[in-house]
User: Fold PRD domain-containing protein from Oceanirhabdus seepicola.
Amino acid sequence: MIIKKIFNNNAVLAKDASKHESVVVGCGIGFKKKVGDEIDENLVEKTFILKQKEISEKFKLLLEDVPVEYVSLSYDIIEYAKNILKVKLNDYIYITLTDHISNALKLFEEGLNCSNVLIWEIKKFYPKEFAVGLKALDFIESETDKRLPENEAGNIALHLINAQVNSSSDKVENMRDMTTKIMDILNIVKYTYNIELDDKSLSYERFITHLRFFFKRLNKEEKRESEHDDFLLKQGKAKYKKAYNCMLKIEKYLEKELNDEEKLYLTLHIQRVTKR
Assistant:
């Protein structure tokens, strides 16, 4: 392979004999080199072959702004995630996750801690991805000596969730069906309470996100046993009677029996989204 472009001392754009491009990372791989030089194969630590041209171009731009150690760190997290989750991830995650880690570390250094409003859903409904997110914090700490807060485990998990290669359940027609059902559920809530929902509110955003996650699980026919006995649900029913009855209407509309945990979460979301 020969060097086509040098990003920095540790990252170069390479071209092989077939003129295929790849980004090659390694300590000192671009040091005192120039375009057209042969790459020292012994220095190669990681190779990025991004097949889609748009992703490849954005990745090259990212390398000009982000420290190469963050690129390498992101690569290790992604490879770990693939092994643990046993799923295919879209190549775009090499850009989104690297960019996120870079920004997260920058904010951390400035003493800023951004909350993750979805961490509740992520922990409950994507425990494997969240566990990978927690492990990613270990990777980051090992590389940078900075321990990011748990919220960042949720953010990393969200990147992994979004990057999972679409299955048949995520085809356009099913996405349309999901959108229709979400609108129907919102209408059930609106007509039950005879109010207009505030679509700019945080509670509305969380409710929509919860419903999207919920339908993805239904489409994948994921069966999750409730982690609680019915005690909490009974409490929710007693405290938020109208929200509970609204949830029952939604369950009837879905024509699917929900477990106690789902019933509880839907009830709580309905209570929050309708609270003035």
The chain has eleven helices and four strands. Confidence is low (pLDDT under 50) at residues 167-172. The longest helix spans residues 172-193. The chain has three domains: 1-49, 52-165, 168-274.
